[in-house]
Amino acid sequence: MPEFLQKILASTREDLEARKLALSLAQLKERVSGDRPRRLLTRAVSSPGISVIAEIKRASPSKGPIRPELDVAGIASAYESAGAAAVSVLTEERYFKGSLDDLRAARAACGLPLLRKDFIIDSYQVWEAAEAGADAVLLIVAALSAEELVSLRQEAEAAGLECLVEVHSLEEMERAAAAGARLIGINNRDLRTFEVSLRTTTDMMNHAPEGVPIVSESGIRGAADVSMLANAGVNAVLVGETLMRSEDPGNALRQLLDYER
After folding, report:
1. Any idea what the CATH number is for the domain that residue 183 is in?
2. pLDDT per position as a tens digit, 62-82
């Protein structure tokens, strides 16, 4: 496991223990409504053409501050109006400067499927996501054992959530498939060097499990990238930094979706 990932997981465990002391898992589950609307991320990214999961993020470990001060509700609403299939919200606090409150604000502002993007390592975080209004959670294969991956996927299903299972290599793709992943994200960023190449996605597409939608993550800079990935058979792209650095994220999203021009 890359040192960077080890460091984030250590802080995640530390922060998680503090939250568990403040509110037990049983109490957290009581807050989750059993009749919440089902907004299916898998369905949203399986429409004809290529879809965009538009991300809300304030910072990243590799790039530092990106958009520290932002109107989460305003951007989520703008993404929905611009044609996003879903919205991803960074909730990790120390390195990405996000929070569950950002997720709640996005939920109040738009009706799209919401992905809680974080370093999910414990069932408690799955129920936090459900309580805050998420429809799906990110599970990173590199951060989890085979048993943890299956257990968290099952816990998510129990909470009424879907999972975007993130991989960085063919070996991780095989592990995702073995764990029963129904939606796979290929991250184009090397977690050891932070280098990004869209070839990571194109090289791995032929090895994707049959019938499982594929999302390409990281490094999508413009409509030409979206067009190339669409031609490679990708179902969706997850775009964060490109949109967050734009003066008008909604308009930037429209330009990405205009990839066929």
Report:
1. 3.20.20.70
2. 888 999 889 999 999 999 999
